[in-house]
Here is the input.
Amino acid sequence: MSNSRNMMNYCPDIKVLDCTMRDGGLVNNFGFTDEFVRDLYKANVAAGVDYMEFGYRASKNMFDPKEFGKWKFTDEEDIRAIVGENNTPLKISIMADAGRCDYKTDILPKKDSVVDMVRVACYVHQIPLAIDMIEDAKSKGYEVTCNIMAVSKVSGNDLDAALRMVSASPVDVLYLVDSFGNFYPENIAYMAKKYVDSMAGKQAGFHGHNNQQLAFANTIEACRRGVNYLDATVNGMGRGAGNCYSEMLLSFLKNPKYAERPILDMVSKHLLPMRAAGLRWGYDVPYLLTGILNSHPSSAIKFIKEGRTDYSRFLSELEEMI
Here is the structure.
């Protein structure tokens, strides 16, 4: 564990991926205005962010478009309405959930798309399906990641088998995902080494949740241990407790191409008014409790929506569920 990157150094291999619209879309049902999306795109370009994730490529046969904003589906024409041909250094990504998308038909060949990267999200039991999705996207010409979710719930043997299978696929980046905000930096140090070692010759990434106010610290720790692809969201906007704050990460990294001021302007113009209008995300006691107990945040989201503040009782309910 002693081998680690000096974070005071300039590290050109680090890539920052903004997933505000995808993870943040879980807060507002993907109901972002075109003005918001266009301003976020411009802010990410100005801030030197490497990738921007526009949303999910979900199946319209499984999800009713009338019940979601358009970034649940992220159609090609909707992306192009924002970015045109995207003649910038910023790369465009989308996420495809295993079992929730029609990837063979809905993900176009790269030559017909402005998208650069497809991020395949799956649970450990979906690895065979995920590998087929990875192979499909790679054959179409995309950069491809695999984001294995909820690994804090996966046994060591099962995770090791999953990492071997994914690393043998044509995937470019394997993401360590702290879905429940359960990990501490010492856990991240151990897990990041496992992921980096399994992806010898390829790349590892990290996606954190802020249940215990550790998303930023855990992102830094993953990076110290050789993880190069780092997820963040503007003002931490994301499901439940949210994610690593873009403005914090960009101000910390020592790459001179990164600048936090465009993101701060985005916070002032859009994120603060969204909070004032009633959208809620970020650290709260119920998310802390689900994080500590390694539980899905859905119960905490329900608790908060019901206006409850009986935290001790909620803790007992979670313990009974476990």
User: Anything to note?
Assistant: The radius of gyration is 19 Å. Residues 261-276 form the longest helix (16 residues). The chain has two domains: 15-276, 285-321.
